[in-house]
Design a protein that fits this description.
By secondary structure, the protein is of the alpha/beta class. The protein contains eleven helices and 14 strands. It has an eight-stranded parallel barrel, surrounded by seven helices. It binds 2-acetamido-2-deoxy-beta-D-glucopyranose (2 copies). The site of one 2-acetamido-2-deoxy-beta-D-glucopyranose has 7 residues, from loops.
Length: about 375
């Protein structure tokens, strides 16, 4: 009796201590240029919020003067809303070839990598972030691949050392990476080094079929499956696991909180791949909802779309978001993240995603609780 009691206490202790590290990610990027006030974020739907973006300037990480005050209070404001929230400062972003070259140059030498790494840690600590998120879009050569591998290895060593010296919890380290070979060759990423040195990767599984790239027919911009072609969310995630060797537990699936608009050639022909005359760019989810078109769900491609007159929008609605989150969970991924949260409509997508995932605590603890 006594023995079995202490045995179950031991098992209980093991489960709790093991599972306390096994949280999932329900992530979202807050984009400073979106105009959403940090104090207006509904943090209840998220476990991790990314503050975008810090700048790469002369091989150092800095915050622009216009962002200084909102970035410095970001963590404090969100912790008041949800005490378990983790905040990460995201560095870089999808700002084109010149920023990509700055990353490539920085990563090419030990001295400039050190300058980048040291300044990133200092900026994170000075502004109370829990972690750092590298958003280099994109490494594009074999040399970039090697240098990115060195960068994350040296970065991991530096944040481990800094935690020992400062006595503070180790900073989290993540990276936003391309979501499909449609975006850039996934072969330009050093899978093993990323797996060994990053806490997790945000896989940007979106922008696969945009109205800029494919103006002539309507498209599902980020289809979970693509029976008609090569590229899909599933294709990208599967490559990260099977070809680049990432453990699924290190991957977060990207959800676009926006869609793309096409103009139909014939308003009566409004299916997927209907003829369109011109692309009309990216549109926020909330603006697509406000347009009030007829909403359709296509379960072959796992995408919603809507149309009204000649306006046609390919995007993710609550139904396709839930289907993607179910997929992420089924694949054993770490979770998901959204780009970017201001585009949501009354937190509908954030809530649908969070509900589809369920508990933030991983299966082990759930087993104990049940
Ligand atoms: C999805 O759209 C494609 C292309 O229009 C069509 O062939 C397919 O039947 C649709 N799937 C469903 C389930 O409606
Ligand atoms: C997507 O379209 C279907 C109708 O085909 C609809 O029932 C569903 O509510 C839509 N999904 C949303 C709003 O997520």
């Amino acid at each position: 009796m006594v023995e079995s009691k202490s045995l179950s206490l031991l098992i209980f202790t093991m489960l709790v201590s093991f599972s306390s590290a096994q949280t999932a990610i329900k992530g979202g990027y807050w984009y400073s240029e979106s105009g959403l006030k940090v104090s207006d974020i509904d943090a209840s739907h998220f476990t991790h919020l990314f503050c975008a973006f810090a700048i790469l300037d002369n091989n150092k990480v800095t915050i622009s003067s216009s962002d200084a005050s909102s970035f410095s209070t970001f963590t404090q404001i969100l912790l008041q809303k949800k005490s378990s929230i983790k905040t990460l400062l995201s560095i870089g972003g999808g700002k084109g070839p010149s920023l990509a070259k700055s990353f490539s140059d920085m990563a090419s030498q030990a001295s400039t990598r050190k300058s980048f790494i040291d300044s990133s840690i200092q900026v994170a600590r000075n502004n109370n972030f829990h972690g750092l998120d590298l958003d280099w879009e994109y490494p594009s050569t074999n040399t970039d691949k090697t240098n990115l591998g060195l960068l994350v290895k040296e970065w991991r060593a530096a944040i481990t050392q800094e935690s020992k010296t400062s006595g503070k919890p180790t900073l989290l380290l993540s990276a936003a990476v391309a979501g499909s070979d449609q975006i850039t060759s996934l072969q330009n990423y050093p899978g093993q080094e990323l797996a060994n040195n990053l806490d997790f990767l945000n896989v940007m599984t979106y922008d696969l079929f945009t109205s800029d790239g494919y103006p002539k027919v309507t498209q599902p911009p980020a289809p979970l499956k693509n029976p008609g072609g090569q590229f899909s969310v599933d294709e990208g995630i599967t490559k990260w696991i099977n070809q680049l060797g990432l453990p699924p537990k290190k991957l977060a699936l990207g959800l676009p909180f926006y869609g793309f608009k096409w103009l139909l050639s014939d308003p009566n022909k409004h299916a997927l791949f209907a003829q369109a005359t011109a692309g009309a760019g990216a549109v926020k989810y909330k603006d697509i909802k406000n347009a009030g078109g007829q909403v359709v769900y296509n379960s072959t491609y796992f995408t919603n779309y809507s149309y009204k007159g000649t306006d046609w929008y390919g995007y993710d609605d609550t139904q396709s978001v839930s289907a993607k989150v179910d997929y992420a969970k089924g694949k054993g991924l770490f979770g998901y993240f959204a780009w970017h949260i201001e585009q949501d409509s009354n937190w509908a997508l954030s809530q649908a995603a969070s509900q589809a995932w369920g508990s933030e605590i991983d299966g082990l603890q759930k087993v104990y609780r049940e």
